[in-house]
Amino acid sequence: MNKLDLVIFDMDGLLLDTETISLAAWKKSFKNYNVNIDVEKLFFSKILGSNENAIKNIIMEISNNNEKLFYDIIKSQVDESFNIVREDGINIKKGANELIKFLNDNNIKKAIASSSIRKKVDLYLEKTNLKKEFDYIVCGDEAEFPKPYPHLYNNACVYFNADKNNVIILEDSKNGLLSAKNADIEKRFYIPDLLLLSEEDEKELAYKKFNDLIEVKNYIENNFKYN
Fold it and tell me: How far apart are the first and last CA of the chain?
């Protein structure tokens, strides 16, 4: 039976239902600055799991290298996202609380490796009262390179001095799974959110696929030793 020491969560779309908030905020922001594109197909699908540098490259391409427009849209998107969260809150993904309790009960370390900036991660985790549940959190503005580069996951593994054979990664995006693969972590659990991987990508990148975090909890309980 496999040994398990550490579970590393992505945040956006995996732990919290932030992708719907993010998409709504991007749509409002592009509209605020009269940029008329299909935000979901031509922009949002490309940025899932990426950090600000990757997002900048895409917006600069859309805006014909208008750097001022890039910064205006970024600021607007952050403001719109925070407004939505403050007014409506954030939904925790199905099974997250049950999985966290199970990991706590069995003394399995928990980390978050998110491409989002620290300010956003802290606000969202505090809003959902989840920040205290994690032993370590590393954010996109604290790593040299974003997902799909391996730096965020390597950072978390180094912090715990973890054997990567005893680590599980929980991800919902292609960039996140690529990041874990590039970090040489085999057990990459894929829990889809808004955008599904192609069959080819899923076969290449996902160790296992689950519908929700309840299924993840049940799988760990039955297939790993952790005490």
Answer: 12
What ranges make up the beta strands (E) of 27-150? 109-113, 136-138
- Per-residue pLDDT tens digits for 73-131: 889 988 999 999 988 999 999 999 999 999 999 999 999 999 988 989 999 999 999 99
Q: What CA–CA distance (Å, rounded) separates 223 from 207?
A: 14
Calpha distance 29→18 (Å, rounded):
16
Q: Are residues 150 and 191 in the same domain?
A: yes
What kind and span of H or E run contains 3? strand 2-3
- Residue where the block lists tokens 């040489």: 184
Domain that holds residue 108: 2-16+92-225
- In the numeric block, which tokens belong to residue 28? 């409002």
CB-based contact 181:62 (threshold 8 Å): no
Rg (CA), the chain: 17
Q: Are 3 and 223 within 8 A, CB to CB?
A: no
Look at residues 64, 88, 112 and tell me which one is the last residue of a structural domain: 88
